[in-house]
Design a protein that fits this description.
The complex is a heterotrimer of chains A (356), B (311) and C (277).
Chain A lengths: L12 H4 L13 H21 L7 H9 L4 H35 L12 H14 L2 H4 L3 H24 L5 H25 L2 H12 L7 H20 L1 H9 L1 H6 L4 H23 L5 H13 L3 H25 L8 H17 L6
Helix pairs in contact in A: 2-4, 2-15, 3-4, 4-10, 4-11, 4-13, 4-14, 4-15, 5-7, 5-8, 5-9, 5-13, 7-8, 7-13, 10-13, 14-15, 14-16, 15-16
Chain B lengths: L1 H30 L5 E4 L5 E4 L6 E3 L2 H9 L6 E3 L23 H6 L4 E5 L6 H8 L3 E5 L4 H15 L2 H21 L7 E4 L2 E2 L2 E2 L6 H8 L3 E2 L13 H7 L3 E6 L6 H7 L7 H4 L3 E5 H4 L6 H12 L10
Parallel strand pairs in B: 3-4, 3-5, 5-6, 7-10, 7-11, 11-12
Antiparallel strand pairs in B: 1-2, 8-9
Helix pairs in contact in B: 5-6, 6-12
Chain C lengths: L4 E8 L9 E8 L4 E5 L6 H9 L6 E6 L2 E2 L5 H7 E4 L10 H6 L14 H13 L15 H14 L4 E5 L7 H16 L3 E5 L3 H7 L2 E6 L2 E6 L1 H4 L2 H8 L3 E5 L5 E5 L21
Parallel strand pairs in C: 3-8, 3-9, 6-7, 7-8
Antiparallel strand pairs in C: 1-2, 1-4, 4-5, 9-10, 11-12
Helix pairs in contact in C: 4-5
Classes of the chains: A mainly alpha (356), B alpha/beta (311), C alpha/beta (277).
Chain lengths: 356, 311, 277
């Protein structure tokens, strides 16, 4: 029941750091917080569509959105930038909510969407699709293989955890996640050792993460996966609050613990698997965005989950825009941008001076 | 009387409609001429162009070289960051060959993009096709691919005669090299694509074929992979007479470097100073420069090592 | 008498343990009274509480709650009836008010917002436990004892008819320990049933109506404090010599002796005492 980094009196280490004030600050009502974050997201989306390797004026942008003007600009805006911005938003929301859910379920502040081997499973599936050449013959083979790999690794992790204890013990789950992840990473490198150079290059590009392959179809499929999953997790906000405190306590307060855990784990894994299969492994979002929201407004999942979703979306859209436009036609891998930009922001948030 | 009028009217209407349909079909048939250029690319896709491409972007540096050699430089509108030829240096860059910025490509309004066969993710091709840009996938593995590529690029850009001329010229250069080494001995050769871990060119690659043509025998001619990574022990066991190292602009003292590396210094060729450098650009581009590359390689393989001042 | 909980021959062994944690326990817990669970460390007090609350299922025997089999009670209905104050929990960043408000979750649907009744219950619970001044502070900024009071407030916010507490006063100072026991006494007078596990033999003897004494997973005594708290019985159960003095209110008080004085009789020599069912 204690967190992995338990301090002697069992408190959350993030809370005993010097900065969060003794009073809950920014006690804004939820509606106000959501509106503020949604505005941030809107600004990020606007910037995403406006900026890029090819610069556009706002006027040209608006024309292109409705289909007027130079057909090339219309193609760039409607077929390249818009789907990409939307995919980044959906993936950012998915990863942030999934991260917050895992942090509650595993009662561990270091938990993040890939902690149960999901990213290694997805990468193994993707590498297999690339090396065997299926990805060339059938375009959707790669995302499907990544998704399958992600889900199968989750099942393996759960199978191992079930064997060791009778119920889903979170400590065993964490350990089996680490173990399965390491095993799959070794498998990936084994496959790559015997693969040809081009496959290795393509596989590594995939693993670095990118939204460059976004299309309206991938956005539609992702959206149809994400929206119901997000709704399920929002509905589980109260049980997740209780599970974050402890499983016995959750049971005493009326939660069917095992059922809630299975539904929440499966849904969060689905969110992560869907995101990884379209955009590769993008780290940092799922770990840090929920913590940032927590430092502002606390751990209550009824506010944390929707706020994390919108904040994660805005964050990833912003990072993707930066990745695209910082180096001209050369794109930076988005995982680098999320870390380089996100870490200083997060450190600033952690060190904010305590209010009176 | 009344019935007759209606019947006549109906017949007239039907006749007019039938005539219109026939005319439409005829017009349709006429409006769809056979595509002027129709080629099957290396990935098996049929690429159709109504007329030769006026605005081409090549993601493969060797294909860019080929286009320049065909005189199609005015038709090139963009380059990758790896295209260092001076003719295209001033063109806008679209990023890497395997991870270009699709947006930049689209903004340059190309009507043809030359893409890598070895892109296993196929993401670029999908997006360009969706944006209405023709994509021709080029294979650049062996010399047959190179000549076929020359011919295809010539057809795609409407420079068939230039393509034939360049191909003839390159074949001529290769023939000259082959004849020159005909009577000479065939030293065993190890071509170092990469030194750590050691990687070499297999027999089915253009480098492997050029080595063979230039009068050398690759010690790994029995391997089936294209770019095999080989064990140092195996290189020592097969004991090449000559080691050929492609180097870039940084001309480090290669022989001294290899003498310092474990494993490499065990090679007889390294100990005796039989290590030759060749310019990397020339020998690793599967394009119109292979004639020159064959010449350089044959000089390297049959280099008179006894003339060296120090081993 | 209408018992609240009835246990018959209940056995439970933890996964991988050699010895049974609860070994053939049969008892009945009466409603409207304070029942205190006593026993040395490892006697099985917490296990027994978890069996009573249904979070552990017995390997043998039956447990009924309010006449129905415990296993047939839905979780949410039990949560509306029984308020639990556990011994320790993880503490993510929640404010005190949010923690106490969790007591209302069993009364709310998934998308339902708290109504005025819920908010009033929360406020009342916080006032009763004297934590209103901390309402907007993060839980982790409070001391151990204050946190325990917040958890008690959460249990009260459930507006339960039964309150189960697992060592509620272990980290509390004298003042807060006394106020807690007096609060429990008040709640019982208002009609609630209280079951608590505690190490504080003396306060248990003063405030509880029934005492349950466990040792090695077996029930060795069950009855009024005067009957259960005797020198031989307590010395045997806790394996330490004690002497008994009398409190001004009449409850027996335990005074531990030095290790040299007095002997520890073996438990088998002490006659068991049982409540009449």
């Amino acid at each position: 029941m204690t967190t992995l980094l338990a301090t002697p009196n069992g408190a959350d280490p993030l809370a005993v750091s010097p900065s969060p004030s003794r009073r809950v600050r920014l006690a804004w009502p939820l509606a106000l917080r959501l509106i503020m974050l949604a505005t941030l997201l809107a600004v990020a989306l606007l910037a995403a569509v406006r900026l890029g390797a090819v610069s556009l004026t706002t006027r040209a942008l608006l024309d292109a959105t409705v289909g007027r003007g130079d057909p090339t600009t219309v193609t760039i805006v409607r077929e390249l930038r818009l789907p990409r911005a939307l995919q980044a938003a959906l993936v950012g929301a998915a990863l942030a909510v999934s991260g917050a859910t895992f942090q509650a379920l595993l009662r561990n502040p270091l938990a993040e969407p890939y902690i149960l081997g999901v990213s290694s499973g997805a990468a193994a599936g993707a590498v297999l699709a690339v090396v065997t050449g299926w990805a060339v013959r059938f375009f959707w083979a790669l995302p499907i293989a990544a998704f399958t790999g992600a889900f199968m690794s989750m099942l393996l992790v759960f199978r191992i955890a079930f064997r060791v204890g009778r119920a889903l013990d979170t400590k065993v789950l964490l350990l089996s996640g680490v173990v399965v992840s390491s095993f799959l990473v070794a498998v990936i490198w084994l496959i790559l050792t015997f693969a040809d150079t081009e496959s290795v290059r393509s596989a590594i590009f995939w693993m670095m993460g990118s939204h460059a392959g976004a299309s309206w179809r991938s956005v539609a499929i992702l959206g149809s996966c994400l929206v119901p999953s997000l709704l399920i997790l929002f509905a589980l906000a109260r049980p997740l609050n209780l599970l974050a405190i402890g499983e016995p306590t959750a049971a005493y307060l009326g939660t069917s613990v095992e059922r809630t855990k299975i539904v929440a784990f499966a849904t969060a894994t689905l969110l992560t698997a869907a995101s990884v299969s379209v955009s590769g492994t993008i780290g940092f979002v799922g770990l840090v965005v929920p913590h940032a929201i927590r430092l502002l407004w606390g751990s209550d999942n009824r506010g944390l989950l929707p706020c994390s979703a919108i904040a994660g979306a805005a964050f990833l859209v912003g990072a993707d825009t930066l990745a695209r436009s910082l180096a001209g036609a050369n794109e930076l891998p988005i995982g680098i941008v999320t870390a380089l930009v996100g870490v200083p922001c997060f450190v600033w948030l952690l060190r904010r001076p305590a209010a009176a | 009387m009344f019935k007759g009028t209606i019947l006549h009217r109906v017949v007239r209407v039907v006749a007019i409609v039938a005539l219109l349909c026939a005319a439409a079909r005829a017009a349709n048939a006429q409006a769809k001429p056979a595509a002027a250029i129709e080629l099957t690319d290396a990935a098996g896709h049929v690429v159709r162009l109504a007329k030769p491409a006026r605005r081409v972007i090549s993601l493969i540096p060797s294909a860019t070289e080929t286009l320049i050699a065909l005189g199609a430089t005015p038709q090139i509108v963009g380059r990758t960051r790896y295209d260092v030829a001076p003719e295209v240096a001033k063109l806008p860059s679209v990023g890497g060959g395997l991870d270009p910025s699709v947006e930049t490509i689209v903004s340059l309004h190309p009507d043809l993009v030359i893409a890598w066969e070895s892109d296993k993710r196929q993401q670029i091709r999908q997006q360009l096709i969706a944006a209405g840009i023709a994509v021709f996938v080029l294979r650049t593995q062996d010399t047959t691919d190179i000549f076929r590529g020359m011919a295809n690029l010539g057809r795609l850009t409407g420079r068939d005669s230039a393509a034939r001329a360049v191909a003839t010229s390159v074949r001529g250069e290769l023939e000259v090299v082959r004849r020159r080494v005909a009577g000479l001995s065939t030293p065993t050769v190890f071509y170092v694509v990469y030194s750590d871990p050691p990687m070499t060119a297999g027999p089915a690659t253009f480098i492997g074929q050029l080595l063979d043509l230039a009068g050398g025998r690759s010690i790994f001619a029995d391997l089936r992979q294209n770019w095999p990574t080989v064990a140092m022990e195996e290189i020592v066991r097969r004991d090449p007479d000559v080691v050929i190292v492609p180097v870039g602009e940084f001309k480090t003292n290669t022989i001294d470097r290899f003498r310092g590396l474990a494993g490499w210094r065990e090679l007889r060729a390294v100990r005796e100073g039989r290590v030759v450098t060749v310019p990397a650009d020339l020998s690793s581009r599967p394009g119109p420069g292979i004639g020159e590359a064959a010449r350089v390689l044959s000089a390297a393989i049959h280099h008179d090592f006894s003339a060296r001042a120090k081993p | 008498m209408n018992a609240l909980w009835t246990l018959e021959g209940v056995r439970y062994r933890h996964h991988g343990a050699r010895r049974a944690a609860i070994d053939g326990v049969s008892l009945a817990i009466a409603p409207g009274r304070i029942t205190a669970l006593l026993g040395p460390n490892g006697a099985g007090k917490s296990t027994l509480l978890q069996l009573l609350l249904g979070t552990l299922a017995p390997a043998a025997g039956t447990i009924t709650f309010r006449g129905r089999s415990l296993a047939s009670w839905p979780r949410k209905e039990m949560a509306r009836t029984i308020g639990v104050v556990p011994q320790g929990e993880a503490e993510p960043l929640f404010s005190v008010r949010e923690i106490v408000a969790m007591g209302r979750y069993p009364h709310l649907g998934a998308w339902q917002r708290e109504g005025p009744d819920d908010l009033a219950a929360v406020t009342r619970a916080m006032e009763r436990c004297a934590v209103t001044e901390f309402a907007d502070r993060w839980l982790s900024t409070l001391s151990g004892g204050e946190r325990q009071r917040v958890r008690l407030a959460r249990a009260l916010a459930q507006e339960p008819s039964v309150l189960v507490l697992d060592e509620p006063t272990t980290s509390l100072d004298v003042r807060h320990e006394m106020t807690t026991f007096e609060l429990l006494h008040e709640l019982c007078a208002d009609g609630a049933t209280i079951v608590l596990a505690t190490h504080n033999l003396n306060l248990a003897a003063r405030y509880a109506d029934d005492l349950l004494l466990l040792q090695h997973g077996r029930l060795v005594a069950h009855g009024a404090p005067e009957l259960v708290v005797t020198e031989e019985r307590i010395s045997a159960a806790y394996e330490w010599p004690v002497s008994i003095v009398s409190h001004s209110g009449g409850a027996p008080q335990v005074v531990p002796c030095d290790s040299g004085e007095g002997g520890v009789p073996p438990l088998s020599s002490v006659p068991p005492v049982r409540m009449a069912r």
